[in-house]
Amino acid sequence: MKKYLLLLVIVMQSVVSFGQTDIERLPKTENRITDLVIKNVGVITMKTNEVIKNQDVVIKDGKIITIAKTSKRNYKNSVVIDGSNKYIMPSLSDAHVHLPKDENDLEKVLTLNLINGVTKLRSMRGEWNHLEWRKKYNTAYSFYPKLYLSAPPVSSRYDFSSEQLSAFVKAAKGFDFIKILSIRNEAVFKDLDSLCKINNIKIGGHFLSNVSDDLLFKSNFAAFEHLGGLTADPELVESRLQAIKNNKIFICPTLSWYSVGSGRYTYDELRNQSGMEYVSKDEIDGWIEKTKAYRAKIGLEAYKEEVVNELKKLDDKYRVIKILNDLDVKMILSPDSSSKYMVAGFGVLDEMKLLKNADLSNYDILKMTTVNFASFFNESYGTIEEGKEADFILLNNNPLENLGTLKSIQGVFYNKNYLDDKALNKLSKAILAN
Questions:
Q1: Are 377 and 398 contained in the same domain?
Q2: Which run of H or of E encompasses 180?
Q3: Pick from 357, 384, 411: which residue ends a domain?
Q4: SS3 246
């Protein structure tokens, strides 16, 4: 714990000194467009499960100023894009990411998300230096996805004193929320929650088995991840789901992590998971060898039994998600691409496909990654409306009918930057594995 506190002091000092240092902003790019018109496009506002066809969407200084029936009006001093037979909808988010350990890998991760139409990332395994990363990569001109950061996670291995806990929360105030993996005991949680309430800091993380439900649901917990501990006791599931609704707590199910980790896929299927062309052959081969070694170690029968059990757990999660959706609990979307065979950005569509097993409509699923994410952070995006920030993707087909159209993003407008399919393809080719 002393080592942890020493690190905390160093970090607090570096945060202060960093705040006094002006990092050079990225230069304006060829993608910088503040005034834009998308003509004759189908608009998916995400306020309803409908398309408003043949609309001109007019953007001035990065804001949507009008959405109106297509006319012959000449839009002077604006870039005009023909949206005929195309659709726009709010850009996507990933609500549970683990940023890479090395900053050298960060730009690739951000780009992988961008080419998949993902312009918002919620970090769920924070480090103190992530504040520096955000200041560097989320500039006034950057088209990299916006980072929402968690402080370094709290876990049961930390036996905080009151003074240590106070110092931790003070250092965490520059972050968007505090992540809890686990907690030493209920007393530590009470103290942490009290400090979070005083400092207006959200809590996110795992459902805690060693803290009473009554205390959890009255705490600053704003979101629970994974559904794991939440559904561990079948007799409490119904009351817990109702309490989540009553207390307006968000849920991030992360089905893909369980699906990939279930053992359900053959080696060839694992090699061909979405986005694997961006992973080096050597790294994939290493993953396969580890998977083969594990399956050989436990034996064929045990492996088959494990797959059956894991898929049964997935089915249970589908049922819970259906109940949550029927209760109108706000869910946010993420594959939790933190394990092997999962590639940043590409897993978002895979997660959507798994959510179809919970009998959710495409509209329900798309709300998770647009409207609900914006609501979680109380931001002015997530819908296509006059007066809102222009933050959208351009598609060839209607995703309310076919989620598969998200495989081919035709354009991204974000932070007053427009990247068309040629710009996105250029970025994509630049990060392909050698």
A1: no
A2: strand 177-180
A3: 384
A4: helix
C-alpha–C-alpha distance, residues 367 and 374, integer Å: 10
Q: Considering only CA atoms, which of 280, 278, 306 is closest in space to residue 291?
A: 306
Under 8 Å CB-to-CB from 189, ≥6 apart: which residues?
180, 183, 208, 211, 215, 219
Q: Are residues 324 and 410 in the same domain?
A: no
The domain containing residue 432 runs over which residues? 31-90+385-434
pLDDT at 355: 98
Contact call for residues 193 and 219 (beta carbons, < 8 A)? yes
pLDDT of residue 87: 98
Torsion angles phi and psi, residue 293, rounded to 5: -65, -40
Residues 6 or more apart in contact with residue 103 via CB below 8 angstroms: 129, 133
pLDDT of residue 143: 95
- DSSP lists the bridge partners of residue 57 as 38, 67
Residues facing 305 on adjacent strands = none
Give the span between the Cα atoms of 222 and 43, in whole angstroms: 31
The number of residues making up the chain comes to: 434
How are beta strands 52-60 and 36-43 bridged, if at all? antiparallel
CA 190 to chain centre: 28
Given a contact cutoff of 8 angstroms between Cβ atoms, the answer to whether 152 and 11 are in contact is no
In this structure, the answer to whether residues 405 and 296 fall within a common structural domain is no
pLDDT at 18: 32
Cβ–Cβ under 8 Å, residues 172 and 201: yes
The pTM (predicted TM-score) of the whole model is: 0.91
Cα–Cα distance list, 148 to 14, 101, 133, 249 (Å)? 20, 17, 11, 18
Handedness of CA 54, 424, 271, 311 (dihedral sign): negative
Give CA–CA dist 406/401, Å, rounded.
11
Distance CA 330, CA 324 (A): 8
109 Cβ neighbours under 8 A, 6+ residues apart: 97, 99, 100, 344
CATH of the domain at 106: 3.20.20.140
Q: Collect the ranges in the chain with pLDDT lower than 70.
A: 1-30
Q: How many domains, in total, are found in the chain?
A: 2
Strands (E), 44-84: 52-60, 63-69, 79-82
DSSP string computed for 327-381:
TT--B-------STT--TTTHHHHHHHHHGGGT--HHHHHHHHTHHHHHHTT-S-
What gap in Å lies between CA 374 and CA 295, rounded to an integer? 41
